[in-house]
Amino acid sequence: MYEKDPNITHIKKECAFVDDHTLRIRKTEGINSDDDTYITGKKIFVIAGARPTIPKIPGLEGTPYMTSTEVLRCPKTYKRVIVIGGGYIATELGYYLGKTGSEVTFLVRSGFVKNEDIQVQEEFTKIFSEMFDCHFKIQFTKVEYNNEIFKVYVNENGEEKVYEAEGLFVATGVTPNTDVLEVKNAGIELDNRGYIKVDDYLRTNVPHIWSWGDIIGRNLFRHSANFEGEYAFRTIFEEAPKGIEIKPIDYPPVPHAIFTNPQIGGVGLTEQQAKSKGIDYVVGLCPYKNSAMGDALRSKDGFVKLIFERSSRKLIGAHIIGVEASNMIHMCIAFMQFGATIDDMLRTIYIHPALPELVRNAARRALPNF
């Protein structure tokens, strides 16, 4: 794609800031040398994302463990794989490893999908633990790798244990690439987590440098990065040259999905967030099995959960776990975007016997609680 556009020069190399207008193109990754080349720019956009965080477990460094990058490019199937982590990357790719033939064991420090609504966490843990060997409240002691076998030493609920497998997948979060880019050389300010600080126009403290996506740490999703990129290019290259007043970026409800089994889709506040904000709210929850399509699919698990603000009657959170959750959540995204109330949702006609009737059913169950 890049090669077809005469206005784009694609340099597939690691780079780092020299100053606020100059970037060093490294000949060798991670090393500055006299053989490096340099480019300059009047405007610079930093969209360099994040990389997997590697926990400091004694013995891990130097072993052939996998991150998300290696899992997706792994040329073979391991008989057994240990997964360290319980977030969306761990559960998505851990499920993938299991369905491609590996016996998968999850070692989780606290719990699965901790950013989700508490009832979604509980439902997911119940279902996922029936499919895989899952262990919680894990403290990691050390890792050994000998004769093509990993040994992971842990303290599990106060008991010392060792888990063995041919493969080890580490999925414990992400780290912004600001250190690799040496953004300090450009005078770019970072927050206390190492992410780039930007204003409401996605501009850094250096006036001619903008940034968005994972590297600013607001929403670690491709779709939110796309939204930010569209805003940046529209305002910087279309509106500003025409003298149009630039408005701050205005985020609509930012949804997310976890593509594992069961699928998860969510938008807006979780119940625990609503509580922490002191919001007086109403909940409606409908299990998949209590719908025509859910019954036809023989669904035993999963539900749609809706959270409404009592005073305004508006939908402020929606959380779905089950079949097609990533698609189902989209109608709730639209409802929230346009400020729909429970009354608006119940005046909507839902196709029978489609799965979205679950959203209507959850709203019906919330209504008596107002």
UniProtKB/TrEMBL annotation:
Keyword Flavoprotein: yes
Gene Ontology MF annotations: dihydrolipoyl dehydrogenase (NADH) activity; flavin adenine dinucleotide binding
Keywords on record: FAD, Flavoprotein, NAD, Oxidoreductase
GO biological process: 2-oxoglutarate metabolic process
Residues annotated as domain FAD/NAD(P)-binding: 21-218
Listed cofactors: FAD
All copies of domain Pyridine nucleotide-disulphide oxidoreductase dimerisation, residue ranges: 254-362
Family: Belongs to the class-I pyridine nucleotide-disulfide oxidoreductase family.
Protein name (database record): Lipoamide dehydrogenase
